[in-house]
């Protein structure tokens, strides 16, 4: 029996054969497998993502995260001597000023200048933070995002070792608000045609934005789950989405979050305001068993790393025993795991 007052990181461990970690995306996007889980009973059935419509009803609302992954990895040289440097942009602090990871870090002292893309982009180190990250100011002609689009590379999660042939495959088809360090991967399964078909069925699709930070891959270090400090991420819940969700609830429809990021956005707003309403800000909400959900009725998500905050969130929604059983079943049935892996829907 799980002790909600003494949750351990090790409670969320499961054995995962390395060969089940998906290295490349499937074609077409919606051909991935779909585990269908009844939230009340824990009963499991198996399908394909292109059959998602079978588990939705007219009047339901899917809430998707429209954040777009920034091509945030750039390679350049120190202006003084031409030596190699790699930057990874993490979080925008103000106009053209970002927190970054860099290597080799010893070259990035305060006041040092670097050049990228043959001089299309320059940067100067403003500050060295306690954790070794840097604050850097960037200089370029025109938009920084446009220059990054031209010279930057999309940072893939550390467990993906194969090079991505088409960098758009690590973007959702509905991505539009640039700012994430990692993709909201549950949405990678959708095609534009499938989304249009769902709309024609009477399914609402509403957008939120949550810019996913690299902290999403940061392991939980504390054995006692309640001592883990979540990273903070910027979100926006627009008025039209709030209206759609409230109308859905009023009509008795279901609100189904596509991904843990959409879920965290909605639950953050309810926790802050006591209801769904337009809002924006930063959230460090940490959802684990014992949490009482106030916004969502269903969840579409991928299969997450052992002992991660994401599997803890799923356990909070589906129940601990049902979640660990679902993961055990997924391993036995040879599902594909993590960012380019298969999906589950919990309803």
The overall average pLDDT, rounded, is: 96
| Spatial strand arrangement across the major sheet | 2-1-17-16-14-3-12-13-15
CATH class of the largest domain: Alpha Beta
Q: What spatial form do the alpha-carbon principal axes imply? A: globular
Q: CATH-wise, what's the superfamily of the largest domain?
A: QueA-like
Q: What would you say the CATH architecture of the largest domain is?
A: 3-Layer(aba) Sandwich
CATH topology of the largest domain: QueA-like
Tell me about this structure:
- Helices cover 19% and strands 27% of the residues.
- With 347 residues, the chain is α/β, with parallel strands linked by helices.
- It has 2 domains: 9-69 and 166-346, QueA-like (3-Layer(aba) Sandwich), CATH 3.40.1780; 73-151, Thrombin, subunit H, CATH 2.40.10.240.
- The strands form 3 sheets. The chain has a 9-stranded mixed β-sheet. It has a 6-stranded antiparallel barrel with strand order 5-6-7-10-9-8.
- α5 (309-318) packs across α6 (320-332).
- It starts with 32 loop residues before the first strand and ends with a strand.
Give a quick rundown of the structure.
The chain is of the alpha/beta class.
Please specify the SSE layout and strand pairing.
Layout: E1 33-37, E2 44-48, E3 61-65, E4 67-69, E5 73-78, E6 84-94, E7 97-103, E8 113-116, E9 121-128, E10 134-139, H1 144-151, E11 177-180, H2 192-200, E12 204-210, E13 233-237, H3 239-250, E14 255-258, H4 260-273, E15 279-283, E16 298-302, H5 309-318, H6 320-332, E17 343-346
Helix pairs in contact: 5-6
């Amino acid at each position: 029996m799980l002790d909600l007052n003494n949750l351990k990181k090790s409670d969320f461990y499961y054995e995962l054969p390395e060969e089940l970690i998906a290295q490349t995306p499937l074609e077409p996007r919606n051909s991935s497998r779909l585990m269908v889980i009844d939230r009340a009973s824990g009963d499991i059935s198996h399908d394909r993502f292109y059959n998602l419509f079978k588990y939705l009803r007219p009047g339901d609302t899917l809430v998707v995260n429209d954040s777009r992954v920034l091509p945030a990895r750039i390679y350049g040289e120190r202006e003084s001597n031409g030596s190699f440097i790699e930057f990874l942009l993490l979080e925008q602090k103000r106009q053209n000023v970002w927190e970054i990871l860099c290597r080799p870090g010893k070259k990035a002292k305060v006041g040092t200048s670097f050049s990228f893309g043959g001089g299309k982009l320059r940067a100067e180190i403003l500050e060295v933070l306690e954790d070794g990250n840097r604050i850097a100011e960037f200089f370029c002609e025109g938009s920084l995002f446009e220059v990054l689009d031209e010279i930057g590379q999309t940072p893939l999660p550390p467990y993906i070792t194969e090079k991505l042939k088409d960098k758009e495959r690590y973007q959702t088809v509905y991505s539009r608000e640039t700012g994430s360090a990692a993709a909201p991967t549950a949405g990678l399964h959708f095609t534009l045609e499938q989304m249009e078909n769902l709309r024609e069925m009477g399914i609402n699709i509403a957008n939120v934005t949550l810019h996913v930070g690299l902290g999403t891959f940061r392991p939980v270090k504390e054995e006692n789950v309640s001592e883990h400090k979540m990273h903070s991420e910027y979100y926006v819940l627009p008025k039209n989405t709030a209206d759609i969700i409230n109308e859905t609830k009023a009509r008795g429809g279901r609100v189904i979050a596509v991904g843990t990021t959409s879920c965290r956005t909605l639950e953050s707003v309810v926790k802050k305001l006591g209801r769904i309403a337009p809002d924006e800000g930063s959230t460090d909400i940490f959802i684990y068993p014992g949490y009482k959900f106030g916004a969502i009725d269903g969840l579409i998500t991928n299969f997450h790393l052992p002992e991660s905050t994401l599997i803890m969130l799923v356990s909070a929604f589906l129940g601990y025993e049902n979640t660990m059983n679902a993961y055990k079943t997924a391993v036995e049935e040879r599902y594909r795991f993590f960012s380019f892996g298969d999906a589950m829907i919990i309803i």
